[in-house]
Amino acid sequence: MSKKGCSFNGGSCHPITDLCNGCGKTVEYSGIVYCLIFPDPAAKWSYGRCSGATHSKAEIKAMEQRINPIKASKRKK
């Protein structure tokens, strides 16, 4: 969505979904809230978390440390 309007799919951007509420990359135009980055926000959320979402943080999983058994046996000596 830009000042000239939407150029997606023949000039019709889709409004945001419930998952987009609270995002900083939205704009209200004619009483409807649109995403500034993605013309179809529902498609971005269908595969998981939206990559442009400012209101949700990605979960970072701690990686388990694997110990090499050969090196571990040498450390014990």
Describe this structure in words.
With 77 residues, the chain is α+β, with helices and mostly antiparallel strands. It has one domain (1-56). The chain has helices at 41-45, 69-76, and strands at 26-29, 32-35. It has a two-stranded antiparallel sheet with strand order 1-2. The longest helix has 8 residues, at 69-76. The mean pLDDT is 76.
* Structural class designation: alpha+beta
Number of helices: 2
Reported for the largest beta sheet, the result is:
2 strands, antiparallel
Q: Largest beta sheet: what is the strand line-up? A: 1-2
Low-confidence stretches: none
Please give the alpha-carbon distance between the first and last residues: 66 Å
Tell me the number of structural domains.
1
Mean pLDDT: 76
Q: Could you tell me the strand content as a percent range?
A: 5-15%
Helix content: 10-25%
Shape category: rod-shaped
Order of helices and strands: EEHH
Based on CA atoms alone, the radius of gyration comes out at 22 Å
**DSSP strand tally:** 2
Comma- or semicolon-separated keywords:
10% strand; single chain; 2 strands; 77 residues; alpha+beta; 2 helices
